[in-house]
Amino acid sequence: MTPFRYDRAGDVAEAVRMGNAPGAAYLGGGTNLVDLLRETVARPERLVDVSALSGAISETDDGGLLIGAGVRNTALAAHPVVRERYPVLARAILAGASAQIRNMATVGGNLMQRTRCTYFYDTDGSRCNKREPGSGCDARGGFTRIHAVLGASEACVATHPSDMCVALAALDAVVHVERQGATRTVAFGDFHRLPGERPDLDTVLEPGELITAVELPALSVAARSTYRKVRDRASYAFALISVAAALEMEGEQVADIRVAFGGVAHKPWRATQVEGALRGAALTDEAIGAAAALEFADAQLLRDNAFKPALATRTLIAVLNALKTGETA
Amino acid sequence: MSIVVNGLAVDPPGDPRVSLLDHLRETLHLTGTKKGCNQGACGACTVLVDGERILSCLALAVQYDGRDITTIEGLAEGDALHPLQAAFIEHDGFQCGYCTPGQICSAIGMAAEAKRGVPSHVSADLGGAVTLTRAEVQERMSGNLCRCGAHNGIIDAILETVA
Ligand SMILES: Cc1cc2nc3c(=O)[nH]c(=O)nc-3n(C[C@H](O)[C@H](O)[C@H](O)COP(=O)(O)OP(=O)(O)OC[C@H]3O[C@@H](n4cnc5c(N)ncnc54)[C@H](O)[C@@H]3O)c2cc1C
Ligand code: SF4
Ligand code: FES
Ligand code: FES
């Protein structure tokens, strides 16, 4: 680790003042950042500890939920309103990492966690445009089992690793952001970026900006929702493919639907084409397969990840059938 | 301020780069807590902070100033082992013993989570009280790897003691 100064911010105002300094970085639970510091992927001059700030979950006037950025992942998954009205969010969190890590990890840090592309971590031996812009991308032509099939660029084919964020993408969440003298909100779908020419930027957050909360709107379709994750072992592994889905039926027809995929792109992938094709349609395996085919029509396959569109499609069929019959676990 | 470790107040490190794991092992010479991967992937470094299980390898010690840490050294009462320690011996819950301190601290944290009703990935019902079945314990303990493969004995010891 390169040397840095550590400060614990007493409140949000102090945090954004400290975070405004060049070379400053915010510290949540540390479960990703400490690793990145140790590997010298991250080399901040100053850490501003925000893990003790914004730790509350409160119901909003219009029936949604305001989740403080410092809320731990375990506390969010265990919250009674989340379990009852947004089960997809509880299930996505519980499918991620381990209990110890979920006890440490904050909501803000989870949104900002960086890719698990192994070349990104390999400071000694690999070229990586996300770590060193312009150096190249050793994932291309290398091991790409966990890499993207949608929305990637010549510069970077990494995926976003979060499970929780896939649920938040399906739920139309809103990110509350603050910096010195200004606050703003960002729709969840706009928060994470596609790599394009700037894979070093994962999100639209500007330097010094602090996530203070994530807001969930009231969403009746979310009451019947779930998350399914496919991975190389049954627990404690990142997703190869994951599906967050919510479904409301009217007889045999889809009244409302939300779908997002994890493991396919540089950001949690809201499947608007799947939703558009299935809304108002009869929910058959053929219809779901055809809808998924639209979403993956432009998929760019790499050496080791050609299985992803088919696996995502099969997982989606299984998840929507389970939601339809009420077997959501 | 100070960090309280097994009931004793200690100074946090002067260098903020020191992990809680290194502070325990190198400065305080509490070597019961083990360093396996040093990157969050094995659970050998698990300790309890205010009763919650965390990974001390991914924790900067300065972040835990003012908190109450319990390590494996803090569990026995004099010569009387903690019931889980005794159960690990009874059920052959280890071979080399390297993962054991992390397993035991993790299991204590897990029992408290289950009691509070925290659901898991394998809970069919997100809303109800938690019953610690074998499948539940396996999932909830998946953050602690055992390279000797003593998992069956580990789960038996935990089921007997805390389920
Ligand atoms: C072994 C292992 C397995 C894992 N498996 C999974 C998995 O299966 N699924 C999954 O989803 N995740 C997994 N994770 C990742 C884990 O979920 C993240 O590390 C965690 O969510 C990050 O949260 P944190 O609070 O610890 O963030 P930190 O490590 O503290 O910070 C991460 C980043 O966020 C920034 N940041 C923190 N808070 C804020 C804020 N309020 N505003 C702006 N920026 C902020 C930091 O500057 C840093 O860049 C795993 C991690 C490990 C180590
Ligand atoms: S895929 Fe992206 S993160 Fe991975 S090596 Fe290439 S540029 Fe780096
Ligand atoms: S040493 Fe901390 S998880 Fe392996
Ligand atoms: S007893 Fe050897 S690693 Fe578990």
How would you sum up this structure in a few lines?
In chain A, 29% of the residues lie in helices and 20% in strands. Chain A has helices at residues 12-19, 33-38, 73-78, 80-85, 87-94, 99-104, 107-112, 118-121, 164-170, 188-191, 272-278, 285-295, 308-325; strands spanning 5-8, 24-27, 46-49, 57-59, 65-68, 174-179, 182-187, 210-216, 225-230, 241-250, 253-262, 269-270.
Q: What keyword list fits this structure?
A:
heterodimer; A: 329 residues; alpha+beta; Uridine Diphospho-n-acetylenolpyruvylglucosamine Reductase, domain 2; Enolase-like, domain 1; five-stranded antiparallel beta sheet; four-stranded antiparallel beta sheet; 13 helices; 29% helix; 20% strand; globular; B: 163 residues; Ubiquitin-like (UB roll); DNA polymerase, domain 1; 2 domains; five-stranded mixed beta sheet; 5 strands; 31% helix; 10% strand; binds flavin-adenine dinucleotide; binds iron/sulfur cluster; binds FE2/S2 (inorganic) cluster
Largest sheet of chain B: 5 strands, mixed
Mean pLDDT of chain B: 97
Chains forming the largest contact: A-B, 39 and 41 residues
* Biggest beta sheet summary of chain A: 5 strands, antiparallel
Please name the fourth-level CATH homologous superfamily of the domain at 222-324 in chain A: CO dehydrogenase flavoprotein, C-terminal domain
Radius of gyration of chain B: 16 Å
Architecture of the largest domain in chain B in CATH?
Orthogonal Bundle
Oligomer: heterodimer
Report the span from N to C terminus of chain A.
Answer: 42 Å
- Element pattern of chain B in H and E: EEHEEEHHHH
Q: Which runs of chain B of at least 5 residues are low in confidence (pLDDT < 50)?
A: none
CATH level 1 name of the largest domain in chain B:
Mainly Alpha
Give the termini separation of chain B: 37 Å
- The best one-word shape of chain A is globular
**Basic shape of chain B:** globular
Q: How many H/I helices of chain B?
A: 5
> Which strand order does the major sheet of chain B show?
2-1-5-3-4
Helical fraction of chain B equals 25-40%
Percentage of residues in DSSP E strands of chain A? 15-25%
